[in-house]
């Protein structure tokens, strides 16, 4: 599995990230690093605790990371969730949370698959 | 017209007065001159006659004095001497000599002479001498003696004893003619006056100056005869006649050269005549000079008078003209005033009309608003009711999971709807209160179109509509625009198109550019959104951009929306300086056309050049093909195009046979006949996997991706095909042919070595990415602050000037980027004005504005683009 294929699998835009990062190795490094980013955990924990302010910020963080890495699909759903949580809880947030979770799982799955191949 | 008439009248009067004056003065000059000449001539005549008479009188007196002298000599002879003849003669001689006589003699009637002294007398004329001898009265005559020469002789009767014993009858005394002449014609007399004494036959007795002519008549002939002998003859005749009649004679003898006054009078004691000739010329010279002076004086006077008149006229004329002008001006002013008054009246009327219209419109708007409000309250109440009702049902059936899920689904839908309504109303109220702002920033049309396409794709897919994007002629991909609002415009059109187009209908989005009328730095952007949906009635079309309107028909009642979208769109387009047009027909569809003149953003610094591949573009839209080929050419690629998959396969084979393969093939997904995937399969079947094939599509390829990969497609490029889309889509394949790594980014993009930047960012991964990118590409030294508060602390504790700039995330725990910026700006440090650049995942214009409002210098949105960061750092650090 190439990095490009990984991007295709996780719903990202490799061509786009390639315009901003000078080396494939750098992209690969950050893609793998994404697995250890704490924003998603923070999002889940805040939502469970009903702390929508933190949840908003966590969603926002995910969105920011996805923008930097061109994870288009997750960026879109997390962005929508950010807007849904911007002024506290809104009804549509629930559906978006599920969407974000699904998208996140897709990203993580793709990266993990890629990681497996890279690490050998 | 009036003025010209007035002027002509004045001119004519002026000329008339001048003519009158000149003729009057001329008449005066000539006539008076004439009269005065006549008068002076008369005066001259009188004067000359006077002089002549004076001369004649003088002659008579002189002669009489001499005659009396001689008589007195006789009288004073003592009686005693009568007897002594010798003594008598001595006495006579003595007395005569004493009185200046040079000759004296006694004569008797027979002519016997008894000479006292002076020798023997020879009379000039014997005849006259005889008459003298016989006369008993004093006489004068001329003669000569050998001793005394020519003598003027005075004879008085005197009985004195003579030598022969007889008694004498006359005593004759003689004086030299020259002496008498001096007496008669004194030198003092006017030299111009010539006097002569002549005899009847014209011979001279005496004359005042010497002439060679023997007679006066000869002299006259000599003087005038040349001109008119007859005239002179006549004068001489008249003169002789007058002399014989013993009358005085006066005449004017005129000739070309001279004009003389002649006066003749008989002299007493003789047969002589006194002739005085006055040359008139000298008088005439005086008179002529006088008349010249007179004429000069008259004409000078005339000139002065004329000049005065002219001056007066000029003055009058000017004043007249000034008055006329003033009059005209005031007339014009009056007219202008009238016009002003009229226009004021018109304005007043029109403003009244306007006021009325405004009132009507206000009423209408009010009505529209209240209608809108009632509609809105209905609109709001409906989803709200649903939410409340569904919530109640859910609570009532809390254990029935399926029911609750169903309720929640409906509640979510209703809430979404409600949110949309409220968002629109909020936007509209912003517009109405003038608070909507545009944040002009560099915008890539490619990005805008990309994001729009990706946003509307799911909805289009859901309604199974055809979606075509036509983009061509885009010389300026980057422009300055408010990207959020531009998105809003496009989304509004597209969501309306999707909303009002039935399932299976088609929607087109077209974008192209033209040179702008605003100049070099601008570009005119045309955005067309067209559908074949339900269209609009003419009546509604006219009001579509008004607020609070929505087509009120059963067809649209089930369609959600506030009716504010188009008003908001219209407002945004107007605020951007653009125009918006709409064509629509019920049942046929609608087309919106937006034209915007936007400032071009300078092209990004990177040069988009790819290896000189040969490429094939396959799409059923000829315009897209041509546009793509020209875009490809501009990035260094030669490309051919064709409209169908079958042709594409044929062309690829031909090239393969020539061993001149295309290096990359771009295939449209949706092709008539053989579609993109089938075509790719066919090419792969025939040629293997050597040539990369890319699928181009406006649709989300997630659904077809697996199929496409299986068919041997190497990648996707999304429509619209901008130059940069093509460049970035194709660049990864630049490494494939040679299997070599693309030469790595050649060193840092820009060198900011020595610059220290504080980056506030709460997310580790984002921080790492930023650090790696900026350090590698820009050579900056980066320090990390995990949130706003740490950022402020680090800055506070740093020495002055330690940091060169701050990159600030906005959404951070503990302290946001806004608050941190406030805090830093409020610090009492010389470097509290340090450049702060916001870096956020939000790109709403409100956020950007808020960033700038709280004191940040600039804003960049994530993802971190090193070039953009470099541009801003350069702007704030290098200046």
Report the total helices of chain B: 23
What's the main sheet of chain A like? Answer: none
Q: Which percent band covers the strand fraction of chain A?
A: under 5%
The biggest beta sheet of chain B is recorded as:
7 strands, mixed
CATH domain class of the domain at 437-600 in chain B:
Alpha Beta
Q: Please identify, by name, the CATH architecture of the domain at 437-600 in chain B.
A: 2-Layer Sandwich
What does this structure look like?
The complex is a heterodimer of chains A (120) and B (879). Chain A is an all-alpha fold. Chain A has a single domain (3-119), classed as HPT domain (Four Helix Bundle (Hemerythrin (Met), subunit A), Up-down Bundle), CATH 1.20.120. Chain A is built from seven helices and no strands. In chain A, α5 packs antiparallel against α6 and α6 (72-85) packs antiparallel against α7 (91-119). Chain A is elongated, with a radius of gyration of 14 Å. Chain B is of the alpha/beta class. Among the domains of chain B are: 76-183, Beta-Lactamase; 437-600, 2-Layer Sandwich (Heat Shock Protein 90); 614-735, Response regulator (Rossmann fold, 3-Layer(aba) Sandwich); 756-877, Rossmann fold (3-Layer(aba) Sandwich), CATH 3.40.50.2300. Chain B is built from 23 helices and 28 strands. In chain B, the strands form five sheets. In chain B, strands 12, 13, 14, 15, 16, 17 and 18 form a seven-stranded mixed sheet that branches. In chain B, α1 (2-75) packs antiparallel against α7 (280-396), α7 packs antiparallel against α8 and α8 (401-432) crosses α13. Chain B is rod-shaped and about 220 Å long. Chains A and B meet through α2, α3, α5, α6 and α7 of A and α8 and α19 of B.
